[in-house]
Write a structure and sequence with these properties.
Blueprint: H1 2-53, H2 77-86, H3 91-111, H4 133-158, H5 162-170, H6 175-179, H7 185-207, H8 212-229, H9 232-242, H10 244-252, H11 260-276, H12 285-304, H13 308-317, H14 320-331, H15 338-358, H16 364-386, H17 388-395, H18 399-403
Helix pairs in contact: 3-4, 7-8, 9-10, 11-12, 14-15, 15-16, 16-17
């Protein structure tokens, strides 16, 4: 009985222990869940508080332009230029792109006329590839056509003067800016743009054989446009710096070295003459004679207002030989009187030669020896006056020097 009681008691204790374990386990789980829930709430609250002090990072949007040059290129240059402008390409860059492309195209066209059509074979001598006479004639005709067409194409597409544009790359890229340095940069650009515009109109008029009234209207419009852009003084200085009349005078007056006032006085006379004959046929002999007469009269009138020394200098400067010597002395930095010394030397040598030839009593052999002596002494003196380099260049065109020793 007692044993049975003990067994029952142990069973009851085990049941109580099991119940207690289940109770406390459930209680512990409930407490853990409550603690976890509380921690989650605290974490959410902390995140919300932090979010108030932090800005959300900006959204990054990646964009790509699937651009290809072929979208702009076109076989039609007008369309090509329009495409370049549509994407904001600078005008100077457009000019460089189109100019390079057009020049390459015309170079290819020119190049094919230098080949005779034979395939290259390394063992053939050069004569096999020379052009035949008929091909040479065809080439000259084709090249003349290309040389006429290219400037017109560039003028139409880009509004530029072909020769002047090439000079920027091969001669002097800043010539226009130097001549127009008296203007502000803005006015300078506007003046050059006006020049290009009216030059284009004249070229178009020439190609279409426009009448005199059309040409006169272009000149009048240009004069009005420059008058609106520039002051009276600026306009005059522009003409003195840029006009064909002024350019011609700067060439013709080499050796005279005009002062500013002298140049202006002669320019005003020559400009009036050029304008008077602007719409006449320059190939008409009657027109040529009339214009030459007016220019001679204008020069005489100008010379009458000079001092005797300056008038004599102007007369001397009309001699092409003297002008050539002045250019030579400038190039080789020779003394200022070297040109005059050479003219005096020539005059003396030629006078001696004339005197010798006039003397019929001198035997032929002695005459030849005397003439050769004059030539030898003159050449020696010329070398001393000019220096060896300048003398070598001068002697190439100085026929008088080489003719001293012959009858």
């Amino acid at each position: 009985m007692k044993a049975r009681f003990i067994v029952i008691l142990l069973a009851l204790n085990a049941a109580l222990l099991a119940a207690g374990y289940l109770h406390f386990s459930r209680r512990s789980s409930e407490q853990a869940a409550a603690a976890q829930q509380s921690a989650g709430a605290e974490l959410s609250a902390w995140k919300a508080e932090v979010a108030q002090h932090l800005k959300a990072p900006p959204a990054i949007v990646y964009r790509t332009n699937a651009f290809n040059w072929s979208q702009l290129e076109s076989t039609d240059y007008r369309e090509y230029i329009a495409n370049l402008r549509s994407v904001g390409c600078p005008e100077n860059t457009i000019k460089d792109i189109i100019l390079t492309d057009v020049m390459r195209l015309y170079a290819q066209r020119r190049g094919k006329f230098y080949q005779n059509g034979r395939d290259f074979k390394f063992w053939e001598t050069d004569d096999k590839r020379h052009l035949m006479e008929a091909q040479l004639a065809e080439r000259e005709k084709a090249l003349a056509s290309i040389d006429k067409e290219l400037p017109a194409v560039l003028r139409e597409l880009l509004g530029i003067n072909y020769e002047r544009e090439l000079n920027k790359y091969f001669v002097d890229a800043d010539e226009d800016n130097q001549r127009l340095a008296f203007l502000s940069e803005e006015k300078r650009d506007q003046a050059l743009a006006l020049r290009e515009r009216f030059e284009a109109q004249r070229e178009t008029a020439a190609l279409t054989n426009a009448d005199v009234d059309t040409l006169r209207k272009i000149d009048e419009d240009q004069d009005a446009a420059f008058g609106a852009l520039l002051t009276a003084d600026e306009k005059q200085q522009y003409e003195l710096s840029m006009s064909p009349t002024a350019d011609r005078l700067r060439t013709e007056l080499v050796g005279f070295s005009p002062s500013e006032d002298e140049f202006k006085a002669l320019f005003n006379r020559e400009k009036a003459i050029d304008e008077a004959y602007a719409y006449e046929d320059p190939n008409d002999p009657a027109v040529q004679a009339a214009k030459a007469a007016d220019q001679n009269a204008a020069m005489a009138d100008f010379k009458a207002g000079l001092s005797p020394d300056r008038a004599a200098q102007l007369t001397k400067a009309a001699d092409p030989e003297y002008q050539n010597l002045c250019l030579l002395t400038q190039r080789y930095d020779l003394p200022a009187d070297a040109s005059d010394a050479m003219l005096d030397m020539r005059r003396v040598a030629e006078d001696e030669k004339r005197q010798l030839l006039a003397n019929k009593d001198i035997p032929a052999d002695r005459m030849d020896a005397a003439l050769k002596a004059i030539q030898s002494e003159t050449e020696k003196a010329a070398r001393q006056t000019l220096g060896e380099k300048a003398y070598q260049q001068y002697s190439q065109t100085a026929s008088w020097l080489h003719n001293l020793g012959s009858n």
